[in-house]
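Notes from the 1:1 (GR / supervisor)

We went over the backlog. Supervisor wanted to see one worked example end to end before approving the batch request, so GR pasted a single chain during the call. The sequence is below; no edits were made to it. Supervisor asked that the structure be written out right there so they could see what the output format looks like.
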Amino acid sequence: MWQSYFKDKRVSIPGGAGFVGSHLAEMLRPVAAEISIPRVEDSIDFRRYEDCASYFAKIKPDIVINCAADQGGIGYYKGRQADVFLNNIEMNLYLLKAAQAAGGVKKFVNVVPNCSYPGYAHTDVLEEEHYWDGEVHDSIFSYGLPRKVSVAFGKALHQQFGFPSIHVVAANMYGPGDRFDSQNSKSLAAFIRKFYEAKRDGTPAVHVWGTGKPLRDWLYVKDGAEGILRAAAVYDDIAPINVATGVGISVADLALKIKNAAGYQGEIIFDTEKPDGAMIKISGIEKMKKILGWVPATPLETGIRETLAWFGANYEKAVKAS
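Structure output shown during the call:
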């Protein structure tokens, strides 16, 4: 059981106040001896190496699970590409280096998005052995490439110092507590908000970016958090490992599922002037199944219903947070 691995350990979760990190913290609280979630409000800025170094020196974690990121939906990056690139380079490389230099860290778990895979691959499935085979898709390079660089830096730290890091490449996650801002959220969360509000307000049509053709692999956040923790407990290789469902759904079909779940009766209009992004992002899961002995348990329809219910019950909080 993965829980026994974390028993009595001090766990640090940079980015632990965010969407994925908060679910990891919730799952760890019953089993870990101590969980530290660094916050900007505490004057900790991971874009400064000295902040990273002083934080690890103070906390002395056994395990670091890195969820720190500057990221959003496809529209988030327009006009801020250089800022996003630099923020992610600094945060992730400084966290890795400071954890290595601190000593005592038994494992650094780097949670990486699957947009760090080659964006123009000629295969239908993103397999780990092809992680280095091409360039990141241009629509997301300012986020995906720095995160890929963090995987490379983890390898360099391992080669030079023997520093133990693993790199979990996660599919797009969704669920309660997600970001529901149509500009900064990923498409599933944006659809949840759009269809919920369209039904409430009697809006005759909902606009969806792009052609609706791209295929995406959607991972319920509670499953994703469990997969990350399972990988932390049993995986020790420097090579990336996917955590995903391995099942793709088109943007159009996803929008229709959410429309029906929300009970919206209006029209869906695809804005083909807006970008699609990479056409296929479906992660291979054979390595995950073999090493973790596990697959995500939550069907997409169930996850959508639970996310819609959470959003409706927490509307003011969800909208304010976004």
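Supervisor's comment: The longest strand covers residues 107-113.
Batch request approved.
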